[in-house]
Amino acid sequence: MAGLLQVVAETVSNAKSLYSSLSGCVKDIKDAPERCRELRREIGAIADIIDDLHDVISAKPDFAPSAALREMILDFSTMVNQMNEEVQLSRTKGVHRLMWPFSKDENERLLNRISRYKDTFNLTLNLQNASAFSSQWTNLCSLNSEKIQEDTKKIRMDTEKLRDDTGKLRGDTERIYSHVQTDRRDKIRNWIFSEDFNVRRTELQKTRLENTGQWFLDSEEFKSFVNGKYSCLLCEGVGSFPFPFHR
Fold first, then answer.
1. Consecutive H or E run containing 246
2. What is the pLDDT of residue 95?
3. Which residues contact 57 (CB under 8 A, 6 or more apart)?
4. Nearest Cα to 5, choosing from 54, 72, 68?
5. Contacts for 87-96: CB closer than 8 Å, 24+ residues apart
6. Can you tell me the distance from the alpha carbon of 231 to that of 217, in angstroms, rounded to the nearest whole number?
7. Beta-carbon neighbour count of residue 190 at 10 Å?
8. Per-residue b/e over 124-138, b at no fewer than 16 CB within 10 Å?
9. Is the pLDDT of residue 90 over 60?
């Protein structure tokens, strides 16, 4: 792993050096074809990709490149070194230093090779980025899941406490209402008759003469009222207001 990392670092440096040398060639040689300029641009682009790949490998100690990827990196490194040698030779060897270092056919072959390298290295970067994103997403989902479980448990506990408090409040309300009703009933009863009714009734029963009021119970009007013939019985005493009885 350390050996591969060193190869990638050297390749990045050599690719950037090659890009700089090709830039000088294109500037110095006015007849350099457009494909040569494209070759320079592609070298610059793949140098950046290799640099990103170096960062990925450095940041992941457990990164295990496949045999195909390792071979591709070594192959690309070899190609960059050979291109650097050709460029340096063309710029120092007599009249040839004013010529573009690669023929048209060589240009085409180099562009095709660089395209394959770019596709492979980009695919590796995309897979690593996707793996990192997937790991981060999994961790985030795990954290969110734990947080949701904690929040759900807290909500359940709060709901149960609210239910208990509501039950207690309902019981207190019913007791207060019962107390108010009892107190109200006692006040009304005391307003009508302030003495103890049971005691008063017992006293009246003791002073009652035998057959008192029997004439009323034996009257046809009262019997008809009791038997359901009449729904209302109006009783009127001497010096008193009429008092109705309803069934």
1. strand 243-246
2. 45
3. 1, 4, 5, 8, 63, 65
4. 54
5. 87/18, 87/21, 87/22, 87/25, 88/21, 90/25, 91/21, 91/24, 91/25
6. 16
7. 10
8. bbeebeeeeeeeeee
9. yes
Report which of 19, 9, 1, 120 is spatially closest to residue 55, judged by C-alpha positions. 9
56: exposed, middle or buried (C-beta count within 10 Å: 0-12, 13-18, 19+)? middle
Tens of pLDDT, residue by residue over 67-82, are: 888 888 888 888 888 8
CB atoms within 10 A of CB 86: 15
Q: pLDDT class for 193, splitting at 50, 70, 90?
A: low
Mean pLDDT of 220-225: 86
CA–CA separation, 140 and 144 (whole Å): 6
The amino acid that residue 143 corresponds to is L
pLDDT in tens, 24-48: 665 555 555 566 778 888 888 888 8
Largest Cα span, the chain: 159
Q: What pLDDT digit, counting tens, does each position of 123-150 carry?
A: 888 877 776 666 667 666 666 677 777 8
Residues 6+ apart with CB under 8 A from 231: 246, 247
Model confidence at 120: pLDDT above 80: yes
Q: Where are the alpha helices (DSSP H) in the chain?
A: 2-28, 34-59, 67-90, 104-192, 197-207, 214-217, 220-227
